Amino acid sequence: ENGAHTSVDQNSAQEMADLILRDRLNFDHIQLQAVQCGIGSIVPLDLMHFWTWQDLQTRTCGAADIDLESLKRHTEYANGREHTVVPLLWEVLEAFTQKHRRSFLRFVWGRTRLPLGEQWPR
Asked: Which has the closest alpha carbon to 75: 90, 64, 60?
């Protein structure tokens, strides 16, 4: 408190260094608690000790590879599944690389990964 108006001399230098160190080590505590709370709303925090960062990324963001069969099961068609362009769309998507599929998904849905499981948000 009031550090801008506190003089530092040889007698108080160690105390000031300790205070600065404590501040640097704890300045983001509130933000980290918020991140932990957010992640905890998606995955059980007790299990995080067993996961790699890749496991956590997959569970929170979805799988990196686009599973076209899963996408087909969840696709909603405004003009019906039997429309003449629907088979063409799937043919093109099957020919795409994963990178191009992610770009397509970002264009149509605003995200680059599919949700995990069979219950997708609408």
From this structure: 90
Copy the structure tokens of residue 25. 């080590």
CB atoms within 10 A of CB 102: 18
pTM listed for this prediction: 0.61
In the block, tokens 């362009």 appear at: 85
CA distance 24 to 8: 18
Q: Residue for token digits 């996408």?
A: 71
| CB distance 76 to 84 below 8 Å | no
Own/partner contacts of 99-106, CB < 8 Å, gap of 24 or more, are 101/66, 101/68, 102/64, 102/66, 105/66
Distance of CA 17 to the CA centre of its chain: 36
Note the pLDDT tens digit of each residue in 69-86: 999 998 888 888 888 899
